[in-house]
């Protein structure tokens, strides 16, 4: 039994080392655009939203996968509970009709980003606020992504499998198809914690 534990620990260390190496390599070898996508967009958001994700015992990440017309196919709110050592995922299809925050009445989730962009390019803010109203849970961070990167991102958050995110090629794709208000160090902390949980600590609703 101790040998298995040691092997598992060694495997986790190797995986995290590989992820770190990929991030560092890509940032320095043409990774400027990744850093711009993942970090600079956070600057204005974090000046307003001072929530400390890294030191918090619980936080939420809103995941949205989009089609090529900017419509939301699926949306999930991920609740990471570090104190309870578990992750809860609330999933909704794009055709779910909800009461949209503000003046839009009832609309499909798929239209939230586009409706928000009618209001001074505030698609993300409208989407976050509508989901907060619908679930009664604060949205701390968001990630929206194209179809080509959704699977490895969902694999990480729904079953702790981050293997699809630790290659240079996947980081290149992510830089082009993913946008978030999370800083690079926040992404690493989330990756490290979530990928370290056993599969039975993930709960989907």
How is the topology of this model organized?
Layout lengths: L1 H27 L3 H17 L9 E9 L5 E10 L4 E8 L3 E3 L6 E3 L3 H6 L5 H13 L5 E5 L4 H10 L8 H10 E3 L3 H12 L6 E3 L1
Parallel strand pairs: 1-6, 3-8
Antiparallel strand pairs: 1-2, 2-3, 4-5, 6-7
Helix pairs in contact: 2-6
What's the short version?
The protein is α/β, with parallel strands linked by helices. The chain contains seven helices and eight strands.
Q: Please, could you describe this protein's structure?
A:
The protein is 46% helix and 21% strand. With 205 residues, it is of the alpha/beta class. The strands form 2 sheets. A 6-stranded mixed β-sheet has the order 7-6-1-2-3-8, with helices on both faces. A two-stranded antiparallel ribbon has the order 4-5. Helix 2 crosses helix 6. Mean pLDDT is 80; it is low at 24-48.
Record keyword descriptors for this entry.
single chain; 205 residues; two-stranded antiparallel sheet; 7 helices
């Amino acid at each position: 039994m101790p040998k298995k534990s040691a092997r598992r620990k060694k495997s986790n260390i190797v995986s995290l080392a590989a992820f770190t190496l990929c991030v560092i390599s890509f940032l320095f070898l043409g990774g400027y655009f990744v850093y711009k996508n993942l970090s600079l967009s956070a600057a204005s958001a974090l000046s307003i939203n001072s929530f400390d994700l890294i030191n918090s015992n619980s936080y939420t990440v809103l995941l949205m996968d989009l089609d090529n017309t900017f419509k939301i196919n699926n949306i999930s709110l991920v609740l990471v509970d570090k104190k309870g050592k578990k992750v809860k995922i609330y999933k909704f299809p794009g055709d779910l009709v909800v009461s949209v925050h503000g003046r839009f009445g009832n609309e499909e989730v798929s239209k939230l980003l586009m409706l928000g962009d009618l209001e001074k390019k505030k698609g993300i803010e409208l989407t976050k606020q509508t989901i907060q109203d619908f679930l009664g849970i604060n949205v701390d961070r968001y990630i929206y992504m194209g179809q080509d990167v959704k699977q490895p991102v969902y694999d990480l958050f729904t079953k702790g499998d981050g293997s699809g995110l630790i290659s240079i090629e996947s980081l290149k794709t992510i830089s082009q198809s993913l946008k978030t208000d999370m800083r690079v160090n926040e992404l690493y902390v989330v990756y490290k914690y979530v990928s370290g949980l056993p599969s039975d600590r993930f709960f989907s609703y």
